[in-house]
């Protein structure tokens, strides 16, 4: 059995560490905010809900929720909640922990969706070092069945760690350079009144964001995933990736693809929601 949490479907995924402002106006989500405020007062916790992306712009109520939603999401932690005069709320959240949907619960009370989830752990140092060690065989002091003694094993571990650190540094530098080129290309398209680039960061915003993530590879990977004008499918795949090294490697390929589109034909992907019309009840 997993933990049951409130669910908030959106048109795009949320990533850990990324700020998400929301204006809450639907009655069911007004109820969600009131419930979270009561919980925060009683338990003295910030409160959170799960954000999951909707597949292909479908309205969740018009299809089975399990079919309408992607199965990997991210919690949104409440940072500030401001009641509005119309009964709604102005909310600022920040992405927290990743989770997988086990089941989607539809009830009359509460009126908003809930989900049973399992929490997803990041595969960081150990996994990435192991991934970078692929092919490191036949090294001095290593026999066919592995290192013959503790000294050789320690030496191999240090070599693997060194390779992993070097690989990560190369990835971070490469993705950072590609993202800077990408933002510049988007800015040039925006200067030509490209209507598809309204949600992309400006050069100044990009520079501030890059400075904020500093030398943190994980933060950089989530910044690129959330800021680049990628399709929902691409973003969802990046959210589902559990290792920073693999996520950055994928972003390197995606940014090269997007730069080719931007620099050759001046185009960015249009969200599928733009083409989604109302669904028939028949």
UniProtKB/TrEMBL annotation:
| Domain of life of the source | Bacteria
Lon N-terminal domain residues: 2-259
Q: Which InterPro entries match?
A: Lon_prtase_N (IPR003111), Lon_prtase_N_sf (IPR046336), PUA-like_sf (IPR015947)
Short name of one Pfam family: LON_substr_bdg
| Full protein name | Lon N-terminal domain-containing protein
Origin organism of this chain? Trujillonella endophytica
């Amino acid at each position: 059995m997993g933990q049951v949490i409130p669910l908030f479907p959106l048109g795009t995924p949320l990533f850990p560490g990324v700020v998400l402002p929301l204006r809450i106006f639907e009655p069911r989500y007004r109820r969600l905010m009131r419930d979270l405020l009561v919980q925060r007062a009683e338990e003295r916790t910030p409160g959170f809900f799960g954000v999951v992306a909707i597949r292909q712009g479908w309205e969740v109520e018009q299809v089975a929720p399990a079919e309408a939603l992607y199965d990997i999401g991210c919690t949104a932690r409440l940072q500030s909640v401001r009641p509005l005069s119309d009964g709604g709320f102005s909310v600022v959240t920040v992405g927290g922990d990743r989770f997988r949907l086990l089941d989607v619960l539809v009830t009359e009370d509460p009126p908003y969706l809930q989900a049973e989830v399992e929490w997803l752990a990041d595969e960081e140092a150990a996994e990435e070092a192991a991934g970078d060690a692929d092919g490191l065989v036949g090294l001095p002091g290593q026999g066919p069945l592995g290192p013959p003694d503790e000294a050789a094993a320690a030496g191999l571990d240090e070599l693997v760690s060194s390779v992993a650190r070097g690989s990560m540094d190369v990835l971070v530098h490469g993705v950072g350079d590609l993202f800077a080129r990408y933002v510049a290309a988007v800015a040039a398209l925006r200067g030509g009144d490209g209507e598809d680039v309204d949600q992309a960061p400006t050069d100044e915003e990009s520079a501030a964001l890059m400075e904020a993530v500093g030398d943190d590879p994980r933060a950089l990977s989530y910044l690129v995933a959330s800021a680049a004008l990628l399709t929902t499918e691409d973003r969802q795949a990046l959210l589902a990736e559990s290792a920073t090294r693999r996520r950055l490697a994928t972003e390197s390929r995606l940014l090269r693809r997007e730069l080719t589109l931007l620099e050759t034909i001046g185009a960015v992907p249009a969200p599928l929601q733009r083409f989604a019309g109302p669904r028939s009840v028949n």
